[in-house]
Specification:
This protein is an alpha+beta fold. The protein has 9 helices and 21 strands. The protein is globular.
Length: 450
């Protein structure tokens, strides 16, 4: 029998067992993942060990209550179902029904074959070459990172006959550097992931080396207002993360999002358009972990709040809202781990590009700051749109040229105010993880120096 049919039959057995034990509906999801890393730590080869994981999760509804269980034992079907049935006795009320939408016509281009045949010794040589190149900056520079090929498969099945399968491989290359001199810690990192081949580590090394060279001079700055350029990495860490939180359907459903009742309201600069696109990037996926088709959606369109993103549970709890018809699952119910409950999460995020070249942003700046890495963004008061972060890697710009690195500096503000007055957005966009963002320029923002 075809291995794929064997897997499907196993999941169908679980659904049958659940219904025989009194479940009115049931869904099963099987996830497998393998990683093949070539990793370096502090200039030395650390690991070539591959690892694999596989497991099954069940969610069912019995007597109007939700029960769930998971297992990494492929033969423990009966005990898995019994655990889910027993947990339903104390589970939350089922405010939603499992999807009935057919997944057969879900088709997006995801590479799922490990067709790139690169010998491990070649990857070791390539990684060693990166280390040798970066070490030319300083003899005490510590370099870590490497390559990874991750391959995974997800099978979804529910008692309504919905069946979906997806698989992909992700090729990654990333490196970080650390230089410790007395009380000065200089840490720089960069990396890329894609679905076709290992990213060019020489390009990653070149970017890191460029930032290292910009960091040779350390410049003190006074506390005052500056024009600031945020790199795509900084935009993702600061603004992207906060926007993702306050647009989260669960946060909206709990009535703690500042964007509650703001659909259709223009709250940001017209230059800002913030979109989720599940058809591109390493998070590309045709359906979520609840069997709902994913779709491209504008979250913010030309500064106006267009939509939130929901899983089944959070969407169903918005049914009492005056705009209940607008609140349905948007195909954003994903499991953070096999045993976790699905919750609203995003795939690939895009901020539309602007009209100005990045290099022109810098060359036309009389005095300003370039911010690439920030510290403490996760500790900000995100629900109020507030941030108070340290500048982990930033540079002083004077007369259109980068003068050197700034230290012990902070920025604080509110994204509702800041994103109302975006001065410029670059034409260039760069992938940082699962975000494709441009450079932002914001004028007259206070930087606290030391």
């Amino acid at each position: 029998m075809n291995p794929a049919n064997i897997e499907t039959n196993k999941l169908e057995q679980i659904i049958d067992l659940a219904k025989k034990n009194g479940a009115s509906s049931c869904e099963v999801i099987q996830k497998s993942w393998s990683e093949n890393p070539v990793s370096f730590e502090n200039n030395k080869l650390k690991s070539l060990e591959s690892n694999q994981s596989k497991g099954i999760a069940v969610r069912l509804i019995k007597n109007g209550k939700i029960g769930s269980a998971s297992s990494t034992d492929p033969d423990a079907l009966n005990s898995l179902v019994i655990s889910a049935i027993e947990s339903s006795e104390f589970g939350p009320d089922a405010t939603f029904e499992l999807t009935k939408e057919n997944l057969n016509d879900c088709r997006i281009a995801i590479n799922h074959d490990s067709t790139v045949d690169v010998p491990l010794e070649t990857l070791v040589e390539r990684g060693t070459s990166v280390i040798d190149s970066l070490k030319t900056f300083h003899k005490d520079l510590l370099i870590s990172g490497g390559f990874d090929l991750g391959s995974g498969e997800t099978i979804y099945l529910n008692s309504n006959g919905v069946h979906g399968k997806k698989a992909k491989s992700i090729y990654s290359a990333s490196f970080s550097t650390l230089l410790v001199q007395d009380e000065d810690f200089l840490g720089i990192y960069d990396g890329k992931s894609n679905l076709q081949d290992f990213p060019d580590e020489k390009e990653i090394s070149k970017k890191i080396l460029e930032k290292l060279n910009y960091s040779r001079n350390v410049i003190s700055i006074e506390t005052k207002r500056y024009n600031i350029v945020f790199t795509p990495r900084a935009v993702a860490s600061l603004f992207g993360d906060i926007l993702a939180v306050i647009l989260n359907g669960k946060v909206v459903q709990q009535k703690i999002s500042p964007l509650l009742d703001k659909i259709g309201k223009e709250l940001f600069d017209k230059k800002l358009s913030f979109t989720e696109d599940p058809n591109i990037g390493t998070k590309a996926t045709p359906f979520d972990d609840e069997g709902i088709k994913t779709t491209k959606k504008a979250l913010i369109q030309s500064g106006t709040i267009s939509s939130f993103y929901f899983d089944l549970s959070s969407a169903s709890k918005m049914s009492s809202s005056k705009d209940a018809a607008c609140y349905i699952s948007t195909g954003n119910g994903f499991k953070g781990s096999l045993s976790a409950t699905p919750s609203p999460n995003l795939t690939s995020l895009v901020i539309d590009s602007g009209k100005v070249n990045y290099h022109d942003l810098i060359s036309n700046m009389k005095e300003g700051i370039l911010i690439d890495q920030v510290l403490g963004a996760g500790q900000s008061n995100t629900l109020a749109g507030e941030f108070n972060v340290g500048i982990d890697l930033g540079f002083k710009i004077k007369d259109g040229k980068i003068q050197g690195r700034i230290k012990n500096c902070m920025i604080a503000g509110n994204i509702f105010e800041l994103l109302k007055n975006i001065s410029q957005i670059s034409k260039e966009q760069e992938w940082t993880g699962s975000t494709l963002f441009p450079y932002f320029m914001v004028e007259n923002m206070t930087v606290a120096g030391k």
